[in-house]
Structure formats: C-alpha cells, structure tokens
Amino acid sequence: MPRFRTLDDLDVAGKRVLLRADLNVPVKDGKVTDATRIERLTPTIEALLEKGAKIIVMSHFGRPKGPDPSQSLRLLVAPLSQAIGGRPVQFAADCVGPEAERVVNALKPGEVALLENLRFHAGEETNDPDFARQLAALGDAYVDDAFSAAHRAHASIVALAHLLPAAAGKSMQAELEALGAAFENPRHPVMALIGGAKVSTKLELLSFVTRKVDLLAIGGAMANTFLFAKGRPVGRSLCEADLADHARIILSNAEEDGCDIILPEDAVTAEKLEPGVLTRTVGVHAVPMNAMILDLGPQTVARICLALEGSRTLIWNGPVGAFETPPFDRATSAIAKKVAELTRAGRLMSVAGGGDTVAALAAAGVTDQLSYVSTAGGAFLEWLEGRELPGVAALSEG
Ligand code: 3PG
Ligand code: MG
Question: Is the predicted pLDDT of residue 398 greater than 90, yes or no?
Fold first, then answer.
C-alpha cells in the first residue's frame, strides 16, 4: 500500500477544508434508508471541527447528466446535521461559482457547509482541470474520506487532490489500514470467501485472490459455474456455461499457487426462488434436473466453518446463497455468525465488503462484530482485483 498523508499532517486551524465525502446513500420517498456512509463521516468532521477548520462537504449523488432537482443533495442537509450532533449545516445550491463562494465566505471556524451534487457539472466525471480549479478556489486544504468513490478518476477525487495540500480522512484511513492488514501483511492462514451471482463479474478478482490467499471458498450462484466445469449436474441453476474454461483455469492456477479451494459439496435446491418454497438438500452429485441450487447445504457450511476456525484472516465478498429470499439466507447467516464469533474471540481478523455482503451481514445482525466492514461496492471489488485506485493514488506521498 502506498503511504498516504492523514489529518495529522494537515494544518487546518481557521482554514477552509474541502471534504470529499461519499453521500451517495440509498434514499426512498425522500428518506435515507441506510445512513452508514453519513455516519462514517462523523469522526473526520469532528476532528476537523476540533482543530477549528471551516468544513465544506462535497459529494456526488446518483448519476445525473447535468442539473436535476430530483438528485439534489439538499435532502442530506438534515441527516448530515444529525450525524454531527445536530450542528447546523449550510447548503450551497451550486458546488462552484458565486453561490458556492457566498456560502463558503460566510463560514466561521467550526462551521459546516454542504455543496450541491458535484455531478451537476460535466467536469466532475471528466476530471476536468478547470472544474477542479473552481473547486480548489473554495478551499485551503483537501481531505478525501470517500474510499467508496476512490475507483472513480473524477475531478473532486483526483485533479483537486493535486491542487491543494491533501490528506485522507479518518474513514479512508481506517479502510486503507484494514484492507492493508488483510492483504499486505496478514496473519496466515488467510482465507477468502467469495460469493455472488456471476463468475463473469469476478474473473479478475478470483485470479488475483487465489494468488494472495491460502484458501478460497466459493459460494453463491457463481459456484454453480465451477460445479458445471467439474462435470456436476446443476439442473436449472444460474450458471455461466460459457465460462467453464475460465473456471477450470482459475482452479488450476489456484493449485499452482498453493491456494486450496472449497466448492459446495451439498446444496439446498428448489424448483422456484420464492419465500418459504419446498426445498430439498442434496449432494452436488445429485442435483435434480428440474431444480435450482439456491444455497449451500449444511455439510458445506460445516466445512467452511471448520476452515474459518483454522484461519487467522478472512476476506469476504458476496453472499453464499440467494439470501434475500428465506430460507436461502441460512448458509450466509450461519457463516456470518461464525465469523462474528471468531472475530469477537480475537481469533480472526475479518474484512468484508460489497453492497450485498453488507446487507447480508446486517440481516444476520453482525455488522459491528467484524474487524472491518467496507461500505464500498465497486471500489472494494477493484481493490480485490489488485488494481490501483485513482483516489488512493492521488493521496499518496511521492
Ligand atoms: C458507489 O455508490 O458505489 C459510489 O458512490 C460510486 O458511485 P458510482 O458507481 O455512481 O460512481
Ligand atoms: Mg456503484
């Protein structure tokens, strides 16, 4: 991991600090349905306030193509204020130009403003130097606390970081340290648990991970492609038959790299993916032609739990079954509880990330019992593919 500057390296007293946040939170009927990303910003804002900074929060929201009132960040003023103990938050109806300057110029040390959606300006996504200069004019220093957007080479993330003294915020720092601890100098054995629907979205990830870890357990519908590649019957299961060759290459590379693989031995099957449907648990040699594999069976769960007991580090991405439809949440939930138990006991350092994974951990009620849960989706996956994230590179020293 490249070295990066932190808040300790920045002199911010009385200064205007541009804080890049990821306030791209889920909203339904005008209400935030999961405030985790907003809450994760609190430590950074509090640390900056303590140092007497004037804080200017910037973020994207959704994927607007130009100004669009339905994607305004105004709706996040109240949730943001709530996350910082009810402190008032000023709103600027544009993120650059006279309106932004008016709001920023009125800020006193210890006050907070939120700028309108960065993506209302095309220059954000094109990493436009002129747009970055307009943003830079509003601040004296730059703090990036948006790991979940670090895979985007956008103006507020990359170009701007080079125009002002820049540092990682506390959440960004915690995220980089947790991922570094899991990947760069981990305690062995290191296990990865990768699930989700499709091998096609995780080809690079699987190739990178097998080079890095001692043991890889594969679950979710993507395991079906591996089972198919090994000649097992998968019935009507979701399966990417055209990727069978890729799956075989991943397995043989893993063997060369000394990475053991756990594939499902048994499975919970049903004819339909519906809540409470009639299920049959079978060995993977005996999946009926008209059935779909929808979750790991108990024998496989037991094997994964045993492997977890023997591991010191876990990297987890992707649910191992169709967890949104009970009873196919059972294996994911049982594994999540085991991971939580071993982490609590100090026997496992556990890092998990990705949208579905976070939802599955929340459903199992163990989110706060893992060593680190990343709120990042795409950025977490790109990290697991071994790619350099532009937003992290922009903060790196030398
Ligand atoms: C996310 O939610 O994954 C980040 O905020 C990035 O959003 P984007 O995928 O629209 O760039
Ligand atoms: Mg995304």
Answer: no
